[in-house]
Amino acid sequence: MEHIDPAVISRFDTRSSRPCEFCRELDPQFRERRPPDQMVASNRKAGASAHLTEDGYVRHRMLELRRIASRAPLTAA
Ligand SMILES: [Zn+2]
């Protein structure tokens, strides 16, 4: 979990974290995630790296990429 600041992990509690709004909106399986995988650190800028767990981070990135892929037409570069 190199991308996650250990200090954020140690501060993981209900006061310093909240469910990720981005994931909650875009991931149909959001509620099936383990609770830590739903949470982002509230003292961080919203984004994949705000997630507290590796799994949460990866799922967030996948949602982002899927959204980008669905928007960008596949044209020859
Ligand atoms: Zn997220």
Task: Explain what this protein looks like in three dimensions.
The chain is mainly α and 77 residues long. It has one domain. 43% of the residues lie in helices and 8% in strands. The chain has a two-stranded antiparallel ribbon with strand order 1-2. The chain binds zinc ion (ZN). The site of zinc ion has 6 residues, from helix 2.
What's the arrangement of secondary structure elements?
Blueprint: H1 6-10, E1 17-19, H2 21-26, H3 35-38, E2 39-41, H4 54-71
Antiparallel strand pairs: 1-2
The structure holds zinc ion.
**How many DSSP H or I helices?**
4
Helix content bin: 40-55%
Largest sheet: 2 strands, antiparallel
Bin the strand percentage: 5-15%
Please give the number of β-strands. 2
Low-pLDDT segments: none
Oligomeric state of shown chains: single chain
Q: What ligand molecules are bound, each kind once?
A: zinc ion
CA radius of gyration is 14 Å
* Widest β-sheet, arrangement of strands: 1-2
The shape, in one word, is globular
In whole angstroms, the N-to-C terminal distance is 34 Å
The helix-and-strand class reads: mainly alpha
Q: Total domains, how many?
A: 1
Compute the average pLDDT.
84
Q: In sequence order, what are the helices and strands, one letter per element?
A: HEHHEH
